[in-house]
Every structure is written in C-alpha cells, then in structure tokens.
Amino acid sequence: MWKTINSALVTSIKNQTVLQPINELLYQQIRTTYVLKRKTPPNLHKLGGLRKPLRSRHYIYDVIKNTAIERQPDIEVLLTSVVEGLGNVGDKVSVRPQFAYNNLLLPGLAVYASPENQEKYKDLAINTDVKKYSTPSAAYTVQSLSRMTLSVIMNKDVPWTLKPWHIKASFRKCGYVVPEYAIELPEQPITGPNMDIENKEFAITVTINKQEKVNVRCRLHHWSTELASRLPYVPRFWETPSEPILPEQKSILDTIPIKEIPVRRLRSGAWGVWVRFLVWRSERHPGPA
C-alpha cells in the first residue's frame, strides 16, 4: 500500500514543472540597458593559471549610461497646416518627441519628415490656399494684438495731437516693441485735451514684418501732473462700455473682438459689471453671445 502511494506521489512531482506556463510570460519589450564600469578592476592571472576569485569590492560599479533616463533627441516633422509659434505649411521643424506626438502628429497638423513624406509634400506649400505668415510667431502676434485694448494716456493740461510715437510709448508700457513706421493712425487727427473723448476708443492699424496687418482697439485717457486735477483711476477700463471717438470707425471697431470677463471675476461677485458688459457687447456685436 505504501509503495503504491509513494510511486504515485513521485510520478506527480516529476510531471510538475517549476517554470511558468508559456501563456503567462510578459512579451512587452523593456528598455533596461545599462553601461557600467567596475570601480575596482579585478586582478590579472597568469597565462594558463587559475583565475583569482572576485571579492566584494569587484562587484561595485559606476553607472556610465542609463538608457531609461536618457534624454531623447528632438524629432523633425513636416507641417501640413499653419501652427502658431512653429511655422507655415511645408516647413520642417524640430520639436520634442512628446510635444510632436500629442500636439502635431495625432491632430494631423504634421507628419514625420521622412524622405518619402518630403517628396510627397514638397509642393504642398506652393499649391495650398492657406494664408502664410512672415515668421512662426507672426500668427500669435496678430491674435494677441487683436484681443488687447491699448491704453493711450495723454496730457490733460498741454495741447496735443495724437502721433505715432504716442502709440509707440503706450505699446512699450505693455511690453510690445512697435516701431513708428508700423503704426497707422486714423485719417482724421485726434486732438486734445478734450474731456468729451475721455475713456472713448479708436482703432489703429499695426503692420507686422511689413506684411501682416492687424487692427488694435485703443482707449484714450487724460493724465495731469497736478494731483488735484487728476481724474479718478478706473480699474479694468476695458470692461467699461465705451463709444468710438470717430463715428466712421464704428464699423472697424465692431470687427475687433471684445475681451471677455474672466470667470473668476464673476465668481467674486462682479455680476453688475458682467450685465453692463453683455448689454454693451450686444449693441456693438448683434447676434448670439
């Protein structure tokens, strides 16, 4: 009896394997390549002699290269659409791999700059009807200027006539460097001081790189060196409803987008400002909000 049980037990143990079944193996490739260097080189042995055993100090290594944390090089892609800040259609740009995958390749704005794709899209920049910009940042500059409301501060005590250098100084206060030759003022001159045009708006045209033109909304404010003559400060003047200084510019101002009130301002309780802003915008821009 005991012999039969012992024989069956030995047979079952022999049939079992210590290895995992092949269907449970992990087939995913893992990049775990390291380049190491021994901190203490092992001792040499005589030709034909026995090798000396390694000590614990011989198993201490310095990491020369770790491919898991190594910075991957930039990849080159070929733009198939205009991308703000990068380039025009047909331009070959070099960007970070993660940015290229998420923002260019997946949305279909670019393809890999392989020799086949370069040959395929070589005439894309010539045959396309998409508007081209002078520089990669020109599209972003046009969008930024069209959405701003430029504050133009003039003297309240001394007579003046609005000139391009006044606009240049106002742009410089906002962080923009705009030359005078790129600023186009309205044909009808704006003179002052005149309290009737205080906090009213007008439009100018700015030329970027002598190619792109953008209309910019401006607000005129008076300022005095005398403390008693100064007008009260108006915070967030761009949220205050206003009228054009020159009636003939109303159609131009209606085409310029109006800056929206941030949601955090509404959460802080500025509902009265928001209602007045909506009424003013509906009068200037009829249609759905």
UniProtKB/TrEMBL annotation:
InterPro entries: Ribosomal_bL9, Ribosomal_bL9/RNase_H1_N, Ribosomal_bL9_N, Ribosomal_bL9_N_sf. One of its GO terms (biological process) is translation. One of its GO terms (cellular component) is ribosome. Pfam families: Ribosomal_L9_N. Residues 75-121 form the Ribosomal protein L9 domain. Keywords: Ribonucleoprotein, Ribosomal protein. The keyword Ribonucleoprotein applies. One of its GO terms (molecular function) is structural constituent of ribosome. It comes from the Eukaryota. Coiled coil: none annotated. PANTHER family: 50S RIBOSOMAL PROTEIN L9. Belongs to the bacterial ribosomal protein bL9 family. This is Large ribosomal subunit protein bL9m. It comes from Psylliodes chrysocephalus.
